[in-house]
Amino acid sequence: MTVFRDDADVHPPMDFEGYRSTALRHPKEPLIALPHRLTEVTAPVFGEGRVGELDHDLTRQHAGEPIGQRIIVHGHVKEDDGRPVPDTLVEVWQANAGGRYRHRVDNWPSPLDPNFSGCGRTITDSHGYFRFVTIRPGAYPWGNHPNAWRPAHIHFSLLGRAFTQRLVTQMYFPDDPLFFQDPIYNSVRDERAARRMISAYDHDSTEEQWALAFRWDIVLRGEDATPMEEPQA
Q1: Handedness of CA 120, 121, 125, 130 (dihedral sign)
Q2: CATH code for the domain of 59
Q3: Is 140 a catalytic residue?
């Protein structure tokens, strides 16, 4: 018999007072659990054929090199007992080195980088391992509260074998000075769980004269779970 640990306190609430827009978009009625039928558990099916050769390397998707500090972000997707989660689609999206997304609603006056789209994806191997090469994102202002700045972060989406198996989270960088005033990071009420969203500098995985490296493992559930489903920004 499989025993699932209660990890409800790990994840942020859907309505968090410090993050103003959650008041407008969180569910107002109790959630209803619906049974998974054949459609939810069988389709669509994702595989390696849907991932391009350079999808994991955000620095080589255009004719030139993007501006900024090149970094490697890598880790494992694991179950709560340490078992690897293979063949999982991992997607990332992020701001560029100046803190700007390539998106029509992002209009803060930091220049766009023509050689950086800010999106990538890969599939975990048989050991649950993933690896991206990208640019360290910059902090950016947003209108949640006076003088609000988001810490540097990378959005992660994990997709199993169907759209109904999607989890979303954010990865942060160590020693960021902006954690204290960021309501998305602080919506994770358990301080130990919040720290699990922060990557670790991994000097052994750096590439000399090429890229720094950060390690970040993702645990899907249990008392050591990575916080998921926090609001998007």
Answers
A1: positive
A2: 2.60.130.10
A3: yes
